[in-house]
Amino acid sequence: MKDSESHDLELVRDYPVTLDRLWRAGTEPLQVVQWFGPEGVYIQACDMAFQSIGPWSCTMVGKESGQRFKLSGVVTSVSPPEHGKSDGDKGDDGRGHVGFTWAWHDPQDQRGPESHVIFTVEATETGARLRLSHRGLPSLEAAQDHSRGWLSTLRKMDYFLCSPGVLAN
């Protein structure tokens, strides 16, 4: 394996919700904090407005261990879904995406290797689809660790989007 190799992962989830609902859940700060982060952690501090380009950060704390996990990056692109677009129109056929850089901080608050995440949303016949791409991870081990973390995070998003009584706006 060469030092310059990077590792990527992609996860796809279909939800029985509108495209607009999925977009808001993935970009509005008050909704993101409801599901972001793997099971077993809570959000201690969060500046995650995925609605506009600019810096973001998040600090999570293990519920049992008390261990702090900080990550940060920059939102690099935001393109909300455009309803009513057709193949002949400019745009992404109603798809939307938000892209951001991603790096964990060490205990001395130094940022580690940076990678890039893209959330893409699109309408389906039964609701909406989320495609999560995480690119440029530095090693196979990092890709496996991030895959476990994202799968756990998406289980929280599943609950957030599909459970009765959960914030819908």
Domains, number: 1
What does the largest sheet look like? 7 strands, antiparallel
| CATH homology group | START domain
CATH architecture label: 2-Layer Sandwich
User: Total number of β-strand segments?
Assistant: 7
Classify the beta-strand content into a percent band: 35-45%
The CATH class turns out to be: Alpha Beta
Write down the overall geometry: globular
As for the CATH topology, it is: Alpha-D-Glucose-1,6-Bisphosphate, Chain A, domain 4
Order of strands, main sheet, comes to 1-7-6-5-4-3-2
Give short descriptive properties of this protein.
169 residues; Alpha-D-Glucose-1,6-Bisphosphate, Chain A, domain 4; alpha+beta; single chain; globular
Task: Describe, in plain words, how this protein is organized in 3D.
It is a single chain. This protein is of the alpha+beta class. The chain has one domain (7-82, 93-162): START domain (Alpha-D-Glucose-1,6-Bisphosphate, Chain A, domain 4), CATH 3.30.530.20. Helices cover 23% and strands 40% of the residues. It is built from three helices and seven strands; from the N terminus they run βααββββββα. The chain has a seven-stranded antiparallel beta sheet, with helices on one face. Strand 2 (41-47) and strand 3 (54-62) form a beta hairpin.
